Amino acid sequence: MSASVVKVGLLGVGTVGGGVLKTIRSQQQKLSDRLGRRVEVVKALVRNAEKQRSVPIENNLITTRFEEVLASDVDIVVEVMGGVEPTYGYVRALIEKGCHIVTANKELLAKHGTELVRLANRHGVQLAYEASVAGGIPILGVLRQFLRTNDIVSVSGILNGTTNYILTRMEQEKLPYAEVLKQAQELGYAEADPASDVEGWDALYKTYILAQLVFGESLPLHAAERQGIEKLHLGQIGLARELGYRIKLLAKASKAGGGLQLSVRPTLLPLDHPLAQVQDAYNAVQVSGNIVGDLLFMGKGAGELPTASAVVEDLAYLLTQRFTPQPVWQESEPAGNREAGEKRCFCYLESKALRGTPDQVTHFLDRAGVLVEKQRIQYDWASVLRIGMIASGFAEEHKKALHRDFGIRAEVFPVL
Amino acid sequence: MSASVVKVGLLGVGTVGGGVLKTIRSQQQKLSDRLGRRVEVVKALVRNAEKQRSVPIENNLITTRFEEVLASDVDIVVEVMGGVEPTYGYVRALIEKGCHIVTANKELLAKHGTELVRLANRHGVQLAYEASVAGGIPILGVLRQFLRTNDIVSVSGILNGTTNYILTRMEQEKLPYAEVLKQAQELGYAEADPASDVEGWDALYKTYILAQLVFGESLPLHAAERQGIEKLHLGQIGLARELGYRIKLLAKASKAGGGLQLSVRPTLLPLDHPLAQVQDAYNAVQVSGNIVGDLLFMGKGAGELPTASAVVEDLAYLLTQRFTPQPVWQESEPAGNREAGEKRCFCYLESKALRGTPDQVTHFLDRAGVLVEKQRIQYDWASVLRIGMIASGFAEEHKKALHRDFGIRAEVFPVL
Ligand SMILES: NC(=O)c1ccc[n+]([C@@H]2O[C@H](COP(=O)([O-])OP(=O)(O)OC[C@H]3O[C@@H](n4cnc5c(N)ncnc54)[C@H](OP(=O)(O)O)[C@@H]3O)[C@@H](O)[C@H]2O)c1
Ligand SMILES: NC(=O)c1ccc[n+]([C@@H]2O[C@H](COP(=O)([O-])OP(=O)(O)OC[C@H]3O[C@@H](n4cnc5c(N)ncnc54)[C@H](OP(=O)(O)O)[C@@H]3O)[C@@H](O)[C@H]2O)c1
User: Where L-homoserine is bound, by residue (chains A, B) (predicted)?
Assistant: First the structure.
């Protein structure tokens, strides 16, 4: 690297890229005090060179041709364009050229991290990705540096701000999913195509990355349990609430007797659980270590500046470290079968035309050996029944029988 | 240091020291995988060699003479004996001999940190103290490594588990301070001599250390605002609650126009503020950065294993780093006068024999220009009056007048 300047290339000048530019400028003094060198953006790749940007940027820095970035003398490239293609190819080419990479791209890492880590190690460059998980919260750094003596039992959390925002609004304003989603899109809290967020993919990518850091391995994405929030409705949220719980899209990576497990699922948290207090677009990560116990980290998981903070902190940190290869990423197929039948869960039963009476339903469950700890029943004489219950021993066969005998649809959610 | 073993000395084998011993043993494999060397405790100083310990320890390791520790070939010493004398002299001697130090002793650091940091730098040894602030939460590491590009505006939090436990019990069980303190002592949540905790000293020591890390300087302890919880009573807690707030012992270090400020004070937090959710013996630290926004870190702030976790993580981390001098600690006298009169505060007015009527009191405040945002009045005809109000413009002169004219005692607490 040149003696007095760190030359930075940017792939993407959108929400995060714009924030990175602003941050490098506003924090320039601090950066150069720490690094002993100025940090300068020397090339920035975009799709559309004519687009008006929220942050002023010299015309001669902007390019739409990746080859120009590759040919420039950048020391380090910040990848904030997102997506897998053509991004993966670009990042590979830069690593092969000897550039350090800082990325916020969880999808790329969850899909090609194993190859990228190996490649970066081979070429002696750093691949840094703090911003890819939980935005401004420095959770990866903490796991990597300050919790390595602990055996980490699990990492769980609220890793997607969009869905947490939607769930918060649904509960507080008693508005249905579709309406809240529309509002969230208008306010910029959700993308035009919300699939990656609401279907749980985004949270799963982050969980995948956390597992690599904490357990040294992850599951292929297809082997994780993933359920989004698209089908959640106010009936479920309301009954859960009456039972003393809040539904959150909980992401979890854990390793126990049955091997590594990754899941992203709408989950009931007791109202006084710290993760249940995390509202709106905030993220939070809970780490359980065998010595330290439970730690909780909370902050803005997305947005221009919080994400840019993680990118620029990562970049500065990386420049103060000597290169050491990072542990390789590994994927292993899940060890055994998942446990059949949920232990303790929230069962939501609904029928628009009940055949029978609520009493008959609860008797059936009782005889079938389902242990109900707590329940709320809503029933009106037009035969619309809703039951929310915290129960153990509810299995697939009960679901089928309820449908066959009573015309009830049952859905099951985990309870923390 | 010897090639295959890290030789550790312990000063103190009490609550934390016992936890450190257990952790070094249970996590030995992880430690030696990471460090490439076994970690072995080779000497342990105690006061009473005959005492039964909760953790088995070979007799020949135990000593009651510090000189034996100093004469042994330890590479690194864990100071978990506490107090300032004779600890300060011991730590100085060890540093001068070239030993690295890991300490959990916030009092020592707040009183002699400036000298110890300088001495450690001079002798090229590391002085590590993650465990001294917020127990198992790796807040110092995060501030030092992962938030250095941000301008930190303030660090605040609940840094003392004992007082938070007492306040939680007082509120939940409506029991007076003295009774809860007694229970806390019986349960081991409070020391036989609780002064350092309940008077706010312990939290202030930690705040002092946080300020050194974040702002590169701190105030002499006498220049900080410090108020404990010994005089809090249920009347205040109850009225605050009715107004939508919870009283917490809030510690804060901030730097703004008026220079550096340190304070530890019972403070009203809105019930939905993340720090208001921190109950029992938990600690939490909130960091506000100009780029990242607010981050919250929560976990066990004390206790055998959480504190030992911080000690052992610190020790392992230190052994993987090359020595670089740490920024010197500085103390500066406060810049100007503190602002007179609280801006927006909680005023608690009480009279056991009111001269006048509640109406006359509120009229007086109104005429005096005190702006009341919200209030709750409790009055019975035996002339016992309690008023809780969130107000602005309440000053010392009003306090005096209320006492003179109405026989009212007024107390003022900050509101977040
Ligand atoms: N937004 C957040 O809060 C957030 C938080 C954490 C992580 N992330 C991650 O950060 C990355 C960027 O997110 P973002 O919200 O900043 O995205 P964005 O606003 O859509 O910006 C993407 C930028 O990349 C450019 N770009 C996209 N595809 C390109 C291509 N094929 N060739 C050249 N330029 C291309 C775009 O150019 P034009 O401007 O010309 O269209 C734009 O400047 C993603 O991986 C995302 O998952 C985002
Ligand atoms: N306890 C916590 O949860 C916690 C959390 C964070 C930080 N800390 C800090 O950690 C330190 C230790 O706390 P602790 O709770 O472990 O204390 P502790 O249980 O009272 O243990 C103190 C140990 O030091 C030994 N000791 C004390 N004075 C001595 C002297 N003058 N000469 C030789 N040995 C002496 C004692 O010996 P004997 O056993 O023979 O009496 C005992 O083994 C303190 O600085 C405290 O502030 C504690």
Answer: 191
